[in-house]
Design a protein that fits this description.
Blueprint (H helix, E strand, L loop, with lengths): L2 E6 L6 H18 L5 E5 L6 H4 L4 E6 L2 E15 L5 E7 L4 E7 L6 E5 L10 H12 L3 H9 L4
Parallel strand pairs: 1-3
Antiparallel strand pairs: 1-7, 2-5, 3-4, 4-5, 4-6
């Protein structure tokens, strides 16, 4: 049975910023002829690795909400320059937008049961265009529209 991982997306302030970063990464990897994948290093390998590798994704929390995911490709054992062991969560850098779900801050990563995972947005291109349009609105107006359920 599939289980996912959820992690805070530290240093990223918006979905647009994450998308731009990942698109730039894919361009750079493509130019170098390297596989189109990214990774996040963590101290602890998931004990439920088989379930994670059975179609699991890495869901990211941005500004207090789970809103995007990446498909996990594999879990690699790696070492830093000092020889300390880590687990590299290797994932496809394609950003998949999901329905937004609030999530409090936490340290490290957590398991996310498949039944609790937010569904993907049905039209990814339309969702990205809407994000770009919203980015042009003043923050106060956007907050008001969201409070009214209009954005």
């Amino acid at each position: 049975m599939t289980v996912h991982l959820v992690k805070l997306c530290v240093g990223i302030g918006s979905i647009q910023e994450l998308v731009a970063y990942r698109e730039d990464l894919m361009r750079r990897l493509g130019k170098k002829g390297k596989p189109l994948e990214d990774q996040h290093w963590t101290r602890h390998r998931p004990k439920r690795a088989e379930e994670v590798l059975d179609g699991g994704s890495l869901y990211w929390v941005i500004r207090g909400s789970v809103c995007v995911r990446h498909r996990i490709l594999r879990l690699d054992e790696v070492e830093d320059e000092s020889g300390n062991p880590f687990c590299a969560i290797v994932y496809d850098p394609t950003v998949i937008m999901t329905e937004t779900r609030p999530k409090r801050a936490f340290q490290g990563w957590r398991y996310l049961e498949a039944a609790d995972a937010p569904p993907d947005l049905p039209n990814q291109e339309q969702a990205l265009r809407q994000l770009a349009d919203e980015a042009e609105l003043p923050a106060e107006m956007l907050a008001e529209l969201r409070s009214l359920g209009l954005a």
